[in-house]
Amino acid sequence: AIQKLEFSLEMIEKGNFEHFMLKEIYEQPKAIEDSLRGRMNASQGWIKLGGLDEYINRIDKAERFIITACGTSWHSGMIGEYLLEDLARIPVEVEYASEFRYRNPIIRDNDVVIAISQSGETADTLAAIELAKERQALIYGICNVIGSSIARASHAGSYTHAGPEIGVASTKAFSTQVSIITLIALQIAQVKGTIPTSKMREILYELENISKKIEETLLLNDQIKEIAAIYKDANNFLYLGRGYNFPVALEGALKLKEISYIHAEGYPAAEMKHGPIALIDENMPVVFLATNKSAYEKIVSNVQEVKARKGKIIAVVLKGDTQIAELADHVIEVPETEEILSPLITIVPLQLLAYHIAIMRGCNVDQPRNLAKSVTVE
Amino acid sequence: AIQKLEFSLEMIEKGNFEHFMLKEIYEQPKAIEDSLRGRMNASQGWIKLGGLDEYINRIDKAERFIITACGTSWHSGMIGEYLLEDLARIPVEVEYASEFRYRNPIIRDNDVVIAISQSGETADTLAAIELAKERQALIYGICNVIGSSIARASHAGSYTHAGPEIGVASTKAFSTQVSIITLIALQIAQVKGTIPTSKMREILYELENISKKIEETLLLNDQIKEIAAIYKDANNFLYLGRGYNFPVALEGALKLKEISYIHAEGYPAAEMKHGPIALIDENMPVVFLATNKSAYEKIVSNVQEVKARKGKIIAVVLKGDTQIAELADHVIEVPETEEILSPLITIVPLQLLAYHIAIMRGCNVDQPRNLAKSVTVE
Description:
Two copies of one chain form a homodimer.
Chain A: H1 20-26, H2 28-36, E1 40-41, E2 46-47, H3 50-54, H4 56-61, E3 64-69, H5 71-88, E4 92-96, H6 97-100, E5 111-117, H7 123-134, E6 138-143, H8 149-153, E7 156-159, H9 172-192, H10 197-218, H11 221-231, E8 236-241, H12 245-260, E9 263-268, E10 285-290, H13 296-308, E11 312-318, H14 323-327, E12 330-334, H15 342-360
Parallel strand pairs in A: 3-4, 3-5, 5-6, 6-7, 8-9, 8-10, 10-11, 11-12
Antiparallel strand pairs in A: 1-2
Helix pairs in contact in A: 2-9, 2-10, 5-9, 5-12, 10-15, 11-15, 12-15
């Protein structure tokens, strides 16, 4: 059957950018706006996701959400766990699709399974939702490609409106996934009454302004390029974050792995002391995501521990931060937002850092070795 | 107050071993036997954990288990998730203690929180259970040190009888934790009627014999030493496994990190295609845990993918395996057991591999740099 492609030529051309990946990083403000448009309104205080509305009674009765995905989408899912538990007070389990489907998972007919996949064709994720459907769970798909297999196999869902993503390393697909999950968590929280109206408004206003703050963050590109030049020859990187920034650490490390072939690993910052700190010496760059207002002192002490072992510290901090700035070798200052929205901002410098390091190492960033854009085999 | 130490001098001497870590690796068969003794009987088909008995009604009614821990104990917890969901059919959430406590977690009064800590003094884990206690959850502690803070703060619990663990990198504490969680999962499964009596007997018989199979696995020491000599200068390692072997991959990678300072990372084998495969070239050793009978063909295809990218393959397989043996550069053949018990066996070659590599690199295996035996700060 012939499928009409729903995008114009310019959408799949690089324009003024040298690579699709860089173009797609810069498209994030617009991609997020496109994904939010018509689905929320801050001044009127509403959120309306069509797919969610249709099944809201069943979703409201769910005792548990299971989020299943692979790769970058799994990181979006982890942020989804924090959001849904925090705002809507529903227990969430995030599962690697490949693990979930093979281990006779517990799926009950009142569970809601959220599947996340840019392409909508990820083989393990598709198989996981087929299994969950057999067990009568409600399947909610978050895909970017319209009419894709996972979108069709889901009972309901929301498309991310990221536009075509050509670079193999996912960027705007990630940030639009996170935006959609934020709306899902907020809408369910509203239905459940687990969020005060005033707090909801504050978050929605911030969400409406998030694109501007991402644009502001993109202005850091030259600074990040300078940092990249210093660390381009590193063999290893650690990425550390707490709370909402922990999945961002994982995603930032994955970007670097994918396109620069540097072994980068993400960890919850406090886990460092239970092993990874042994790796730290003067050759180890450590990227800290330190924009948290909650547990800020804890992350300061993690930074101190790395400094004491002579690790090189690149810290993403809030504008005006002084405490970490004193300790770090490099600080990247990003605009402040609601803490629950911070991944949308803190991921941006990490995408740029990975991009520049990969370019400086002569890597093919749009088509990294060994990787496929859409993993349709198991 | 004066506390009497409950162990004799020889227990804290190295005996014929050069290092405590090696001694403790070799003590695992006995440590597991000590931990199982009086708590199960295969021929009579019973399991009896005192701590569990006391609260069995409440535990039976739990809708969810939360396992919280740090480091190696967190890996034991992940195996616990697989065991409890698989055997007792209760949803389990495994949480890094440091993340859990700071994110306003969902804890309900009918939740059971299992805290795992060798020392029983891990600061984040202790704080996590204090929080859960305030919210009326039942706290079940799994500790090695008698009278430790976590043991005292728990409503109930089971001690691992590993004896004193001196090496900073945990070995026998891990395997006894896994043994105890296996008993917990089996006893709850028995109460809930989610396991057929015949299956229960089979598992208990295998558990009674597991120490002999670990002894058999320890005989591979010389072969593993040879493999260590080949890869001792590697800068990076990947560890891959599926199902019950996925947490083992994480734990194997952590051992290497902790004592050899090589950047090693564990992944669920199928996630490799979503990023880490980009790291693979002729310089990357990849350790596969491939003893699974379920999804065996899937792991074979993961091995093929690594081979196609010229990665060096060290595979832990079941005795007599031919398919993976043909593909791998090195095979380590271990005895077969029930798949749910396989972590107790497959971890052993990984502990030995880390040990020998660290020794060959001139590292202080018992006191690795930057690490403390018990992390009593946050």
